[in-house]
Amino acid sequence: MLVSLWQAGGALLEEAVGGSLASKVLLPCAFLLTIAYLSKLAFKHLNTVEADNVKYPPYIPSVIPFLGHAISFGKSPIEFLERAYEKYGPVFSFTMVGKTFTYLVGSDAAALLFNSKNEDLNAEDVYSRLTTPVFGKGVAYDVPNPIFLEQKKMFKTGLNIAHFKTHVRMIEEETVDYFKRWGDSGVGSKKRSWKSFIKIVYGAHNSQSELHGTPLNDDEIAGMLIGLLLAGQHTSSTTSAWMGFFMAKHKSVQDQCFAEQKAVCGEDFPPLHYDQLKDLQVLDRCIKETLRLRPPIMTMMRMARTPQSVAGYNIPPGHQVCVSPTVNHRLHDTWVQNTEFNPDRYLHENPAAGEKFAYVPFGAGRHRCIGENFAYVQIKTIWSTMLRLYEFDLVDGYFPTINYTTMIHTPNNPIIRYKRRKL
């Protein structure tokens, strides 16, 4: 077969290259590289059962060498993954930019990633090339996992109820101060405050400024601060923005949230305090439902360092093993009215409640985000303040599409109409 391809390719190349020596050398080389690449894929993936009876996940073929499915995935990743799930089941592999990605869809398959040890499914191998240029050396995924865990423990010293109680007032004051520039009505977008994050890092630094007896240097402190801001500030602001659009679209839900503010906090809206937040159950469900439909991170990834088994398939070392919270959160066989914004779904029996990894906006297991509780405190405080100040509507019915070009999937052109409430 390869000989036939070579002969056919040679005939085509002879017509195309003319008398150019460079063309005669370069084009056959390109042809041979393409044949070699396709042959590698054929031998690796088309036979799912090898001689030693190792069964690999179903492989989604592509006619484009090296790039594979990068273009179609980049344009519409969620639809791509949902189609693959329907056709191939909960575990499947495909190539993008020369790398093999294996996705685990659904709660049962996702358990492999969330229950894994770092030495088996490794985070640094995937994320270090993304985070180190931003955070700098010596922090996060640039260090061995035990050191990274020590760094996260430092942050945990600032993520406690005592600090949360002081943050509520601080966040409320900054939100009120920011919205003074909006006026009584108009069309605008929303931003978030950074001061609370800086205070957390400052508190963590003061309470524990050494790792394994070695003092942190200024670069490490700066890198940890940048990491915290990126991990917490951008994700929370994106969730807050999406929730605003959902509430503007579903005005009855927005009205319920406003009524809840009066019922829980008082008709005259005195300053918020931490103990009130737990009683804002409608607002809590709105956050939860927003995180279901628009989790900030579309894909969680690990590099397989050792052979892994899941759903009857064997995943070899070198595969990037992935779970998509977005896809898991809208599987039609797990979620009733899977694409509808319905905060009240959590009041009733829900098939997803019996599945451990059906809802994973903050990760799960040993990989769960340490900032989950702070995120809820922050978003509840900001939206409590905003609901007291304004009512929100879509601008001519415009509901944003998702920006898939960024790591955190923000709304495209996030504009919203607001009008100050008359209290």
From TrEMBL:
<dbReference type="Pfam" id="PF00067">
    <property type="entry name" value="p450"/>
</dbReference>
<keyword id="KW-0349">Heme</keyword>
<keyword id="KW-1207">Sterol metabolism</keyword>
<comment type="similarity">
    <text>Belongs to the cytochrome P450 family.</text>
</comment>
<keyword id="KW-0408">Iron</keyword>
<keyword id="KW-0443">Lipid metabolism</keyword>
<dbReference type="GO" id="GO:0020037">
    <property type="term" value="F:heme binding"/>
</dbReference>
<dbReference type="GO" id="GO:0008203">
    <property type="term" value="P:cholesterol metabolic process"/>
</dbReference>
<comment type="pathway">
    <text>Steroid biosynthesis; zymosterol biosynthesis; zymosterol from lanosterol: step 1/6.</text>
</comment>
<keyword id="KW-0153">Cholesterol metabolism</keyword>
<dbReference type="GO" id="GO:0005506">
    <property type="term" value="F:iron ion binding"/>
</dbReference>
<feature type="binding site" description="axial binding residue">
    <location>
        <position position="369"/>
    </location>
    <ligand>
        <name>heme</name>
    </ligand>
</feature>
<keyword id="KW-0753">Steroid metabolism</keyword>
<dbReference type="InterPro" id="IPR001128">
    <property type="entry name" value="Cyt_P450"/>
</dbReference>
<dbReference type="InterPro" id="IPR002403">
    <property type="entry name" value="Cyt_P450_E_grp-IV"/>
</dbReference>
<keyword id="KW-0479">Metal-binding</keyword>
<dbReference type="InterPro" id="IPR050529">
    <property type="entry name" value="CYP450_sterol_14alpha_dmase"/>
</dbReference>
<keyword id="KW-0503">Monooxygenase</keyword>
<dbReference type="InterPro" id="IPR036396">
    <property type="entry name" value="Cyt_P450_sf"/>
</dbReference>
<dbReference type="GO" id="GO:0008398">
    <property type="term" value="F:sterol 14-demethylase activity"/>
</dbReference>
<keyword id="KW-0560">Oxidoreductase</keyword>
<protein>
    <recommendedName>
        <fullName>Lanosterol 14-alpha demethylase</fullName>
        <ecNumber>1.14.14.154</ecNumber>
    </recommendedName>
</protein>
<dbReference type="InterPro" id="IPR017972">
    <property type="entry name" value="Cyt_P450_CS"/>
</dbReference>
